[in-house]
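Sequence in, structure out. Go.
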Amino acid sequence: MDKLLIEGGRPLEGTVRISGAKNAALPAMAAALLTSDRVELDNVPRVRDIITMGRLLAHMGAVVETPEIPPTSMIFQAETLNGAEAPYELVKTMRASILTLGPLVARCGHARVSLPGGCAIGARPVDLHLKALEQMGAVIGMSHGYVEATAPGGGRLPGGRVYFDKITVTGTENILMAAVLAKGETIIENAAREPEITDLADLLIKMGADIQGSGTSTIRVQGKEKLHGAKHTIIPDRIEAGTFLVAGAITNGQLKLTDCAPEHLTSVIAKLRETGADIREAGPGTLVVRGGKKLVAADVCTEEYPGFATDMQAQFMALATQAEGTSTITETIFENRFLHASEMIRMGANISIDGRRAVVHGPTALSGTNVIASDLRASASLVLAALVAQGETVIDRVYHIDRGYERIEEKLAAVGARIRRV
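Output:
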């Protein structure tokens, strides 16, 4: 099992290219199941979750190509599907596998998908997806750890009015994909507004779908009998960009981020500026971050987009350990998402947890030690803490970070970090 060894204490300086968004690429890959034509995606990050989803689509009968030129492209063609099932063996490490449920039931009239695994950050129940599919006319059942969804008569879903009791990104994506091949109109209310939703809708529209309102809380979809192939470029990864903004700020360095989307980072940039980081746009798709000579505390409350992303909460906690004063971090999206705090405490951080609230007193001198990553974003936060810790930090279970960050040790080493994989 791979580990990362990091020797802290060096400011990061240089240029980092931001990869495509894993959380946009995964639903785009699932959308390839909606047509028998070729779907070509570019700016796809080569991370573990993408590889897993590719294997899942291939298991279902899709042809999956990964050309060497360009290295960020992937081509899918699900001309025929040999089965509408996502087995546990392939989905146990990745919650995004549930995204195949909507496309499969839309195209095949039925689907059988194992309840997925993923990060240990608390419940992310699929019942919101299932209730929404029922509102579209699907018959839902559970058997031996699998979700089974069937359209009336095994044909096309009739569509309908869907209301989410709680905003869900993957739920919105699933229903959006199910709706594009439904018989009639589907109205999705209390829909998620994340950029990844809009990116998926843009791809589906290129494939012939009729979608209005993506990026708002109400999305209208007029179902089509069939979709065709398309070419699409995945949006930049706003969480990777946010992580590197923190890396520049926490190490008091200077980083230029290219191929990013500053418009997707408004809340993160505002909060980092509040701590004293100097962040500015230096051209289209380019951000420059300079660490403040003295970081100051700031409070954060995670919210659905366009609020402060829960996927940036752990990274902000690492920054807060180096800021003057007391920072309060409130996690409203997921429970159990403070598992990284105990590892930072072992490094010397002054953090107390009370339910969904973490209080961080800073600045504290962190010292390198052995730590364990509990989930994807927690692993990134431990890398950030290690970059400013005295001595060497060993981060175990870095397969978590490989799920969502492309070649993170290479990117960090290129801008001055002492980091290596063992």
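Check: The first helix runs from residue 22 to 31. The chain has two domains: 4-19+236-421, 22-233.
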